[in-house]
Automatic annotation (TrEMBL):
Domain of life of the organism encoding this protein: Bacteria
Any Pfam family: VTT_dom
Spans through the membrane: 12-30, 50-72, 140-160, 172-190
InterPro entries: DedA_domain, VTT_dom
Protein topology in the membrane: Multi-pass membrane protein
Keyword RNA-binding on entry: no
Compartment list: Cell membrane
Protein species of origin: Telluria aromaticivorans
This protein's name: DedA family protein
Domain VTT positions: 30-159
CC terms in the record's Gene Ontology section: plasma membrane
Keyword annotations from UniProtKB, A to Z: Cell membrane, Membrane, Transmembrane, Transmembrane helix
Main location class: membrane
Amino acid sequence: MFKFITEFLETAGYLGVFVLMALENIFPPIPSELIMPFAGFVVARGDLSLAGVLIAGTAGSIAGALPWYYGARIYGKERLKKFADRHARWLTVTAEDVDKAIAAFDRHGRSVVLFGRLIPAIRTLISVPAGLACMSLGQFLLYSTIGSLIWTGFLTAGGFLMESNYEQIGKYIDPVSKIIFGILLTWYLYRVVTHRQAKA
């Protein structure tokens, strides 16, 4: 993965940054923790401009978030509630839980989208409740853009400052991503087990 990303960005430039960041949001296993630090290294080397890299990275991040947003919006809350009731055991949520979650999102949605874009493993999925809650496209784009710009700026700055050691950024952030994923997985398994016990 590392070799592919570096070689692709070396040849594709700004377009490569945009495409990889879009794919990173559509298909999360492609890590922004490697994409943007390398882009920062290329900026430090003088081959690309900082503004261009930030614009391309942020635009790609938003472009990748939109399919999740529109997919959730088209699928709709009512269909999700019916699906949740049919598969409550494995989803660990019911129709009532969906209503509560969307009500909470209605109250705090802007903050959730803004800060959610800064959290590995959450930054892609945060588009789903935004779509289900029918958050306006304008608000979604505004807060997603701010959050994405902060995230891409942080990673790009790390690559710029560390120059040839830019890959260390990914090594530092990758364990954090795995810890967050592990916590979420543990929480999910706990919900599945306790739900089945309750049903029994």
